[in-house]
Amino acid sequence: MDHSRNTGSPLHLRLAKVFLGLLNIALLVAVALVLLPLVTPYFKHAGSYRWIEHVEVFDARMIRWVKSLVPTNFKGYELARWFIVGGLLFGRMWVDTLRRKVSTAIYRTTVQRDFEALQSAAPTDARVLAPVKEKMKTMDARNPKSRAELLKVMGDAKRQLESMGRDLAFLSIDVVDSTKMKLGEDKTFIEHDFREYKDLVDSKLRSNGSLKAAWTPDGVMACFPSIDAALKAAKEVIGGLDAFNANVKMIKSNFTVRCGINAGHVYYDEQTPMEEMSDRVIDIAGHMQKYALPGTIACAKQIIEPVQQRGGFNDAGKVVDGYEVYQWTPASRLQDERAVS
């Protein structure tokens, strides 16, 4: 969390800081030029230099201009030059103060960005972020000690969150055209069938070691300790629907599902419900499911390559969230498709 370069701060703030820095230097040079005529008489032939001559001409004009604005002679002492010097020094102080305020704004923006990065990766109720929030409220961005204390607290929080990270797999399952399936059907049959379907899926998730799951009305997102476990659960759900459609369901339409799987390193807290977990790894699992064909499992190519159950996976010819999609199709369906073709 090195904030020295502030690469994530808004461009207009960084440009303002650079401009104010250049203006500060320009004012310092101006002070030196205003004082230059006081020392040139002590240097032999100094007036022979053209640039010094131009400075002295401009200096004389400035002196006359100041005299025309305010009284400059105090008890016989001519103070016009010192009024100019004082004005330039006051301008430098004002610019320097403004530059510090811009630097503070840049620092706060960068800190807020880093905090949001931690927050987006952390569980919703991550208590490890509470000290960071408290320190951000009381931090004095102008005080180096206060900034160092905040960086230490943020570093501690990041290490704690990293220790909570695990390599996990996520399985998203949804019923294809579930709304159409319910049209014109008896409500009792609908309630019975979808309850039985949920029981079927839950049993497959549990038997394959699901760590937690969250249901939408007809879909589920489940967390597994490994890709193999998630794949096995998905295959068993798809395979179990044949008997379910033949012997259990009462409505006319058959149950068909789409499955999507993704895996990666995510922050994991046993106390956080599945529906409150938030990570791009989880989002991609849901996106894979939406692009899967009915009765298939879709996942990224690199997710499948290291697993043991690679049989039945083929290139789907799709790209989802920048990942090549591989698709698993049941052998029975492949045989039916070959027979038709």
Q: What characteristics describe this protein?
A:
341 residues; alpha+beta; Alpha-Beta Plaits; 3 domains; seven-stranded mixed sheet; two-stranded antiparallel sheet
Protein described:
With 341 residues, the chain is of the alpha+beta class. It folds into 3 domains: 1-117, no CATH class; 122-163; 165-340, 2-Layer Sandwich (Alpha-Beta Plaits). 57% of the residues lie in helices and 16% in strands. The protein contains 11 helices and 9 strands. It has helices spanning 11-39, 50-69, 80-121, 130-138, 144-163, 178-182, 187-207, 227-247, 280-291, 301-304, 331-340, and strands at residues 73-74, 77-78, 165-175, 212-215, 219-224, 257-267, 297-300, 313-320, 323-328. The chain has a 7-stranded mixed β-sheet with strand order 4-5-3-6-7-9-8. A two-stranded antiparallel ribbon has the order 1-2. Strand 1 (73-74) and strand 2 form a beta hairpin. Helix 1 (11-39) runs antiparallel to helix 3 (80-121). The model has no long low-confidence stretch (mean pLDDT 87).
SSE layout and pairing:
Elements: H1 11-39, H2 50-69, E1 73-74, E2 77-78, H3 80-121, H4 130-138, H5 144-163, E3 165-175, H6 178-182, H7 187-207, E4 212-215, E5 219-224, H8 227-247, E6 257-267, H9 280-291, E7 297-300, H10 301-304, E8 313-320, E9 323-328, H11 331-340
Parallel strand pairs: 6-7
Antiparallel strand pairs: 1-2, 3-5, 3-6, 4-5, 7-9, 8-9
Helix pairs in contact: 1-3, 2-3, 4-5, 7-8
